[in-house]
Amino acid sequence: MKTAIVTDSTAYIPKELREKLNIHMIPLSVVFGEETYREEVDITAEAFYDELKARKDLPTTSQPPIGEFVELFEKLGQEYDAVISIHLSSGISGTYQGSVTAGDMVEGVKVYSFDSEISCIVQGFYALEAAEMANEGKPVEEIMERLHEIKKSVRAYFMVDDLTNLQRGGRLSGAAAFVGSLLQVKPILNFENKVIVPFEKIRTRKKALNRVFELFDEDASKGVPMRAALIHANIEEEALELKAELERKYPHVEFLLSYFGPVIGTHLGEGAIGLGWYKK
Are residues 13 and 107 in the same domain? Predict the structure, then answer.
């Protein structure tokens, strides 16, 4: 049985890695006024942050149309027996449900939709592992079982410079955003029950980053093989330095560098940084 792996653009898997592992991508979009851009297709992360600075109003974001899912699944059905479609948390987007609906509409190929309950490259971890297994010819049931197993060890924390975008975009409670801006707190955020919630409130950026590294160390210090990723919102230099620092300290961990692209960057804003990981 041949299995195709699909994820959406918010996994922010570098294009060369997607192509190497044959991961198919369906884009979400950002909308500036009358202009719609499919992320990873029509607009890069860098161009997006430039546009964001130049605009007064925040863009809106939109999930892929059902028709695009159907078209992709039908095309894949000509070559594959099954499709595993991995998406960002259903708590912040209807993309996963779109995949489920489209999967029920297509014939000739079985679609297995998977809610990562998270986003960004941490969502991408599931796609990477699924693609590696699919390329080895592993059966779809075994791949799905592994994805559910990964969910038990996935952890991710991120910090934003300003909570305003999250508040305005409705992705974080207004009260939490108000407290953060009032006290100049740098909250550490994470996903809990499929939505973004404050994990801890910390006074400075440096202390917040150190706290994220402490949380990482709780798992990484055990010496088990892990995959991890530094994620940044247009602060690549800082992220590269932090990645190099972590690589020296944890040689048994495979580190990736990723980014908050347009759709997630709309809500987090420039300067956000995160760290996600799981046990391999």
Answer: yes
Determine the average pLDDT of the residues in 41-56: 93
The count of structural domains within the chain is: 2
What is the CB-side half-sphere exposure of residue 137 using CA atoms within 13 A?
0
Q: Is residue 49 part of a domain?
A: no
Closest CA relative to residue 165, chosen from 30, 44, 63: 30
Name the domain boundary from 135, 150, 165: 150
Domain boundary among 150, 176, 207: 150
Residue 46 domain-assigned (yes or no): no
250 pLDDT tier (thresholds 50, 70, 90): very high
Report which residue type is found at 166. Answer: L
Question: Rounded mean pLDDT of 182-200?
Answer: 82
Say what the pTM is.
0.93
Q: What is the pLDDT of residue 168?
A: 59
Q: What is the pLDDT of residue 176?
A: 60
Roughly what angle, to the nearest 10 degrees, separates helices 140-150 and 120-135? 150
Those residues with Cβ within 8 angstroms of residue 235's Cβ, 6 or more apart along the chain or in another chain: 270, 271, 273
Question: Is the per-residue pLDDT at 28 higher than 60?
Answer: yes
Q: How far apart are CA 100 and CA 188, in angstroms?
A: 32
Rounded Cα distance between 212 and 204, Å, is: 13
Domain residue limits at 241: 155-279
Q: Dihedral sign for Cα 42, 171, 213, 270, please.
A: positive
